[in-house]
Design brief:
With about 220 residues, the protein is of the alpha/beta class. It is built from 9 helices and 7 strands. Helix 1 packs across helix 9 and helix 2 crosses helix 3. The longest helix has 12 residues. The N and C termini lie close together (about 10 Å). The mean pLDDT is about 90.
Length: about 220
């Protein structure tokens, strides 16, 4: 299965994407992880977009298409994948559809995580991430077993610059303007599966599996 997770910042795409990837035994491919890797390695691309990402904006479409396509062409994605954070807008979706090939076949299903904005702000205010493995935690809903440390590798957890509460209004504005129209785009293709993203991660994942039953 080739799946996409859509949803505003704080809706749980990282957590649910990893759960679904594990369930399907395919890789979770997150554009956020790709971007953070480039920023950490101080590549030309990373230096180019660092300030944009910290401010809550997106990377240029052509760059994202390029790096996502490279990742999808790797052997572990041949049997399927879960895309988290891509596509971000209609232009990316149309470009990706137009460049489909045997190496990067078309998307099968799009899961739209839907939740109210008050809950999103509360979630992102308590969100922490492991800089080593990328595991996402939420201090109220999904805290680490040991405060401030990743369950997987004991790395010190950090707050991403884009999760600063001051950036949330802008990030939500960008989401509503650029990403939300994708729900209609994929609904017209018969690929959209709306899922209530409120509640515990386990409850949300149960709803995702239920939404995928007809696949």
């Amino acid at each position: 299965m080739r799946a996409v997770l859509l949803g505003p910042p704080g809706s749980g795409k990282g957590t649910q994407g990893q759960k679904l990837a594990d369930q399907l035994r395919v890789p979770r491919i997150a554009t956020g992880d790709i971007i953070r890797d480039h920023i950490a390695r101080r590549t030309t691309f990373g230096l180019k977009i660092e300030e944009r990402i910290a401010a809550g904006d997106f990377a240029p479409d052509e760059d994202i298409i390029h790096y996502v396509s490279l990742r999808l062409a790797e052997p572990d994605a041949a049997a399927g994948y879960v895309l988290d954070g891509f596509p971000r807008n209609l232009n990316q979706a149309r470009l990706f559809d137009a460049t489909g090939s045997e190496e990067t076949p078309a998307i099968d299903v799009v899961i739209s995580l839907e939740i109210d904005e008050a809950s999103l702000i509360e979630r992102t205010a308590g969100r922490l991430i492991c800089p080593k493995c990328g595991t996402v935690y939420q201090t109220h809903l999904q805290p680490p077993k040991r405060a401030g440390r990743c369950d997987r590798d004991e790395e010190m957890l950090v707050r991403r610059p884009e999760d600063d509460p001051g950036t949330m209004p802008h990030r939500l504005d960008v989401y509503h303007m650029s990403t939300l129209p994708l729900t209609q785009y994929y609904a017209q293709q018969g690929k959209l599966r709306p899922v209530d993203a409120s509640g515990s991660p386990a409850d949300v994942f149960h709803r995702i599996l239920f939404a995928l039953k007809d696949r």
